[in-house]
Amino acid sequence: RPVDPFDLVIFGATGDLARRKILPALFKRFCAGQVPAEARIIGAARSDLSVQAFRDLLTASVTEYAPEHVREPGMLDRFLECLVYQKVDARSAEGWGELAALLVLDRVRAFYFSVGPSLFADLARRIREYGMVTDQTRIVVEKPFGQDLESAKALNATLASHFDESVIYRIDHYLGKETVQNLMVVRFGNMLFEPLWNSQYVDHIQITVAESVGVGGRAEYYDRAGAMRDMVQNHLMQLLCLIAMEPPAKYDPDAVRDEKLKVIRALDPVKPHHIVRGQYVADPERPELGLGYRDEVGNPRSRTESYIGLKAHISNWRWAGTPFYLRTGKRLVARSSVINVRFKDAPHSMFGAQPGQHSNVLSIRLQPNEGITLQVTIKEPGPGGIQLTDVPLDMTFAKALGPDGRDPADAYERLIVDVIRGNQTLFMRGDEVEAAWAWTDPVIAGWQSCGDVPKPYVIGSTGPADADLLMKRDERRWRGIN
Ligand code: BG6
């Protein structure tokens, strides 16, 4: 279903995120017939670009990031017609009057802040000063939303002084991933899982977001942030919330976000010995795999972690006693994001199975190969008597989606359409972000105060050995990364 014609202003339109994600996502939705030809995408940045130069930039970016769509005849030319460019400078009056004049009355006007948070205040002020706020205005902001609780509060206060919370869309692109949304439907749309979804039946939950890439071109940002701020405070916390939250009464933004917030607030402080920090190092036997972290970021004494493994506890009625193990890292053996819910053993095995030998595991795979499998124990088929074996009940979406197994829409496609439609369910509310920082801040302060040095792990491995020990101490183990 197409959305109504809208104006979308992208501040930072020539930047990396716009080129890699936002513009290709808009183009893909255009090809799918969801973005109408009357929509206008207004690139706004400090560079002095002609409209044609901006269109060339878009052409280059979609050719790289949405090549199969570029091949659809005529689509790119039609999409380019939607594009406009306006030079503006957040720190001066330049270009703002012209930008305001471009906007059409009576349609949704979304302002996408694809810029560093240091510019949020200036942008917000100019938007208001130049009379661009209507009852159809939406403000989209990207992470990082601050680098600690204090800065996040300041950003929230700045935004709140210009806009109502109901028009602010804080992006966490993990919430736009197909399986992440499906997680809510699987949990709350079936009778099967929810009665077992508590500490009485769930032994533990593992959330893994493994990446094979390194810090790439973002060394400066990353070396200040580290994995805790870059991934745990947002993406992993959001996954944890969706896995652990109580059923909201409706699929409605505040109903969902209220429940997520309760999870974050129920998290116990993490104990220092329940956290492992790691930093990747080059593999001397396979130097072709790349540079170690410190060389890559050009900071030989860096103590920034590129890996985190931790054990969290949620102190509430449902989860008391069930640990949540979270891990994320760069330059690991594979790109693989999975949530594993491991159920307890049956109370007694009439087949003589050893404890822990056969258990049900619900695996929710975010990427690649989005899908859900449930490991169940069955009899090994054949005449060999009763032998137990574990097989997956497989709900891989690519197969279900069609014979061509096309990838589900990219997270940004879904989220941008939600912005235009005015649906905040998959966006973080200000209090959620603050609660997440309130949980991560003491952890970061803890290792800063004791000068903690991250444990080395070799590029292409599964992370530091201490992360395995974290599990082993509890007589558990990580499931493989693949
Ligand atoms: C971003 C982080 O938010 O998410 C990056 O800043 C990370 O460091 C990326 O690589 C991972 O996203 P995805 O969608 O590739 O899993």
Automatic annotation (TrEMBL):
Domain annotation Glucose-6-phosphate dehydrogenase C-terminal: ranges: 184-479
Listed GO biological process terms: glucose metabolic process; pentose-phosphate shunt, oxidative branch
Binding site residues for substrate: 173, 177, 211, 230, 330
An annotated GO cellular component: cytosol
Main EC class the enzyme belongs to: oxidoreductase
Binding-site positions, NADP(+): 12-19, 46, 143
Residue intervals of the Glucose-6-phosphate dehydrogenase NAD-binding domain: 9-182
Alphabetized UniProt keyword annotations: Carbohydrate metabolism, Glucose metabolism, NADP, Oxidoreductase
Function of the protein: Catalyzes the oxidation of glucose 6-phosphate to 6-phosphogluconolactone.
Stated family: Belongs to the glucose-6-phosphate dehydrogenase family.
Alphabetical list of NCBIfam families matching this protein: zwf
Name under which the protein is recorded: Glucose-6-phosphate 1-dehydrogenase
